[in-house]
């Protein structure tokens, strides 16, 4: 059974880059690696509904914190079998976003902290009811909100399919989400967390070695 490792952080934190660098470092160390990113746009009807809602489709759907949270959760529920199969086949499975993203963003939207009711709801829904695999470790890639926003803006200019959505464009939401992420990491919510500086860079080989020793 492989180790399930999740990379979390604000939009523009550099999760995709860290996934690539960490995958290479793990491969260089002799490990097999599987990867998956959420939401699974283009692969899951629930993820596609999320994207459409975030770009002002489906009326006021995006205004419903619990409605959007349910769509995110259903996207992951649909991938549960794929995650388990990947864990059977690989030493490490890296996920770009997972359950903690739902908890952090939902709490931030409702102006709650990590002890709020919506974080409890996310855990009961995704872990207890849907039975999603619990991570062995979670990585919080911390960057100042301003840096994350600049990166997201640059990405939107350079990649036609990466236009900023309603959540990415809301600076207040991103600030509050960063606070909740810090709280979840401090509590080691669901599993052990590693908090890394996403500005100065991450030593991927050293991190890979630590993950292999879990």
Kindly list the characteristics that best describe this protein.
214 residues; alpha/beta; Rossmann fold; 5-stranded parallel β-sheet; 9 helices; 5 strands; globular
Verbal overview:
- The chain has one domain: 3-Layer(aba) Sandwich (Rossmann fold), CATH 3.40.50.300.
- Helices cover 52% and strands 13% of the residues.
- It contains nine helices and five strands; from the N terminus they run E-H-E-H-H-H-E-H-H-E-H-H-E-H.
- The protein has helices spanning 15-28, 45-54, 65-78, 80-89, 99-109, 117-129, 145-158, 171-187, 204-212; strands at residues 3-8, 33-37, 92-96, 137-142, 192-197.
- It has a five-stranded parallel β-sheet, sandwiched between helices.
- Helix 1 packs across helix 9 and helix 5 runs antiparallel to helix 6 (117-129).
What's the gist of this structure?
With 214 residues, the chain is α/β, with parallel strands linked by helices.
Can you name the CATH architecture? 3-Layer(aba) Sandwich
Tell me the name of the CATH homologous superfamily. Answer: P-loop containing nucleotide triphosphate hydrolases
How much beta, percentage-wise? 5-15%
The gross shape turns out to be globular
Count of DSSP H/I helices: 9
* CATH level 3 topology: Rossmann fold
Question: Class in CATH?
Answer: Alpha Beta
Number of domains: 1
- Which structural class is indicated by helix and strand composition? alpha/beta
Overall mean confidence score, pLDDT: 92
How are the strands ordered across the major sheet?
A: 2-3-1-4-5
Encode the helix/strand succession as letters: EHEHHHEHHEHHEH
- The total count of strands amounts to 5
- State the share of residues found in helices, binned by percent: 40-55%
The largest sheet, given as strand count, sense and whether it forms a barrel, is:
5 strands, parallel
CA-atom Rg in angstroms? 16 Å
Distance separating the two termini: 13 Å
The stretches of 5 or more residues where confidence is low (pLDDT under 50) are: none
Family: Belongs to the thymidylate kinase family.
Keywords: ATP-binding, Kinase, Nucleotide biosynthesis, Nucleotide-binding, Transferase
EC number: 2.7.4.9
Pfam families: Thymidylate_kin (PF02223)
């Amino acid at each position: 059974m492989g180790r399930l490792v999740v990379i979390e952080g604000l939009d523009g934190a550099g999760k995709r880059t860290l996934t690539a660098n960490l995958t290479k470092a793990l491969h260089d160390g002799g490990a097999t690696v599987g990867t998956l990113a959420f939401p699974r746009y283009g692969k899951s009807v629930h993820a596609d509904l999320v994207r459409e809602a975030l770009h002002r489709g489906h009326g006021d759907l995006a205004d419903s914190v619990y409605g959007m949270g349910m769509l995110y959760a259903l996207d992951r529920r649909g991938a549960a079998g794929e995650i388990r199969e990947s864990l059977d086949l690989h030493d490490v499975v890296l996920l770009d976003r997972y359950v903690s993203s739902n908890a952090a963003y939902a709490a931030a939207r409702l102006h709650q902290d990590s002890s709020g009711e919506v974080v409890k709801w996310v855990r009961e829904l995704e872990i207890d009811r849907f039975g999603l695999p619990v991570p062995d470790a979670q990585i919080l890639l911390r960057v100042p909100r301003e840096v994350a926003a600049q990166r997201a803006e640059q990405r939107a200019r350079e990649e036609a399919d990466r236009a900023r959505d309603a959540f990415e464009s809301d600076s207040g939401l991103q600030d509050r989400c960063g606070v909740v992420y810090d709280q979840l990491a401090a509590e080691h919510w669901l599993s052990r967390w590693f908090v890394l500086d996403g500005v100065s860079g991450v030593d991927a080989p050293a991190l890979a070695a630590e993950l292999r020793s879990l």
